[in-house]
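User: Just a sanity check before I run the rest of the batch. Below are the structure tokens for the first item. I only need the designed sequence back.
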């Protein structure tokens, strides 16, 4: 089995090792930066975790992504990992805020004791000689456990920082001493000295911890994005302990405020209904678009993401433009730059038939989906619709690596677009009102597409935007 069969062409992945959350997303002087959680020495037990770094001038062709750290966990405050964080463009450079996680050796529960959580700032300056044109400076610890409210457990992390109304604001994900998830709100005049101003909580307990809080502000409204943990019993969570979604703030409310803000968890919606999605992060690019990148993975997933000894694990979603939908939800759509990777075009006319593409790298659009229909990839992964729902179903367990079936309601299917990139599939329905993302591990080099219940299918072969990140020949392969 060739490693190349599963190597991505336009999804960000590590050359070797483990990747999780996207971090430090920003655009600076035209260049897009995507940092991410990275453990190059995975699957070695206890492999160090820090940040990896890729960059691009067009969101499609990527560079960087080597097997080293952009931020190494090399100070005592981050001895157990340089965890997730964000970027804020500032004075021609960028400020990176992230969490240093440090577990003390000893007999601790690491929830109420034994864990230090520091919020750290790195100022990065534009420097053409540095990787991606960004030279990272020294690390400054801005906040430690003693600085958080007394009701917090040791789990306080994943800063999201933005500027609004002349101040700097920070959201931190937290778990309180009663095992309830919440977000802390902090304010600063200079982005360096911070004071807590309030909290964001649900009406009723909504998970024991909120990871990776984020703020989405569009069309005069604000949404809180969050990753609550402890959701396995909810009817809509597919049994997942951890999910990623968003809630609208009450009309007219802002996160840049003091005091207690209560959000209605009854209005929580998942960002993505597929098998592999977590820890998304958004940013506003230099043209004013809100773009989102998610981790195409899940903590403690019951299915495989590195079959047959693959030396790398996980990837990120494509960058998705986020817009406000008329129904109060958010829409996600692949950044239009992805269309620049489209090559040879294949068409299937008629309500049923099959197409064969040379590789698993395609942008597939179903023309006028009928009330009920199906797109089948390699006869192994079915994307079916009808009765107001869309369903992903694996017919082949080896290809799904333990993934079985995922269905989500969306009303009538008006449009359907599928991005296939070797071992990643993203399905966009009804202009991105519903998205389902999954990894899969196809067995043959060619992609076969079988369709029914459509007026036709248009499929473009997609080019390779990741070749600039490939490891040198011979340093790649299966273990
Ligand atoms: C989410 C998360 C974050 C943390 C990071 C560690 O997947 O657990 O809360 O900062 O991953 O890699």
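Assistant: Here's the designed sequence for the first item:
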């Amino acid at each position: 089995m060739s490693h190349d069969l599963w190597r991505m062409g336009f999804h960000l992945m590590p050359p070797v090792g483990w990747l999780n959350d996207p971090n430090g997303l920003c655009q600076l002087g035209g260049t897009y930066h995507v940092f991410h959680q990275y453990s190059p020495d995975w699957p070695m037990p206890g492999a160090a975790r820090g940040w990896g770094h890729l960059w691009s001038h067009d969101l499609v062709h990527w560079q960087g992504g080597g097997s080293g750290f952009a931020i190494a966990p090399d100070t005592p405050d981050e001895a157990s990992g340089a965890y997730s964080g964000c970027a804020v463009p500032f004075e021609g450079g960028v400020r990176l805020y992230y969490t240093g996680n440090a577990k003390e050796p000893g007999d601790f529960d690491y929830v109420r004791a034994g864990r230090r959580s520091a919020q750290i700032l790195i100022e990065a300056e534009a420097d053409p000689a540095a990787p991606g044109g960004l030279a990272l400076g020294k690390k400054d610890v801005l906040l430690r456990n003693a600085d958080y409210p007394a009701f917090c457990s040791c789990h306080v992390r994943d800063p999201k920082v933005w500027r609004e109304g002349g101040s700097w604001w920070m959201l931190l994900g937290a778990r309180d001493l009663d095992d309830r998830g919440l977000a802390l709100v902090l304010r600063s005049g200079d982005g360096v000295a911070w004071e807590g101003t309030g909290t964001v909580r649900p009406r009723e307990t909504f998970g024991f911890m909120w990871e990776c809080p984020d703020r989405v502000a569009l069309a005069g409204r604000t949404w809180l994005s969050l990753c609550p943990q402890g959701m396995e019993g909810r009817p809509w969570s597919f049994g997942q302990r951890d999910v990623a979604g968003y809630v609208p703030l009450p009309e007219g409310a802002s996160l840049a405020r003091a005091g207690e803000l209560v959000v209605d968890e009854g209005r929580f919606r998942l960002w993505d209904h597929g098998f592999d999605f977590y820890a998304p992060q958004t940013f506003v690019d230099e043209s004013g678009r809100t773009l989102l990148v998610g981790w195409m993975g899940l903590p403690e997933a019951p299915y495989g993401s590195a079959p047959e000894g693959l030396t790398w694990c996980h990837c990120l979603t494509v960058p998705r433009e986020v817009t406000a939908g008329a129904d109060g939800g958010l829409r996600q759509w692949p950044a239009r730059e992805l269309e620049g990777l489209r090559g040879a075009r294949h068409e299937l006319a008629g309500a049923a038939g099959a197409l064969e593409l040379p590789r698993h790298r395609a942008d597939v659009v179903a023309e006028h989906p009928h009330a009920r229909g199906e797109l089948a990839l390699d006869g192994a992964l079915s994307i079916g619709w009808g009765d107001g729902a869309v369903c992903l179903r694996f017919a082949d367990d080896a290809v799904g690596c333990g993934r079985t079936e995922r269905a989500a309601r969306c009303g009538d299917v008006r449009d359907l677009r599928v991005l296939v990139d070797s071992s990643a599939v993203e399905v966009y329905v009804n202009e991105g009102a519903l998205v389902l993302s999954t990894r899969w591990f196809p067995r043959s080099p060619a992609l076969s597409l079988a369709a029914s219940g459509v007026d036709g299918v248009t499929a473009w072969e997609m080019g390779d935007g990741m070749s600039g990140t490939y490891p040198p020949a011979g340093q790649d392969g299966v273990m």
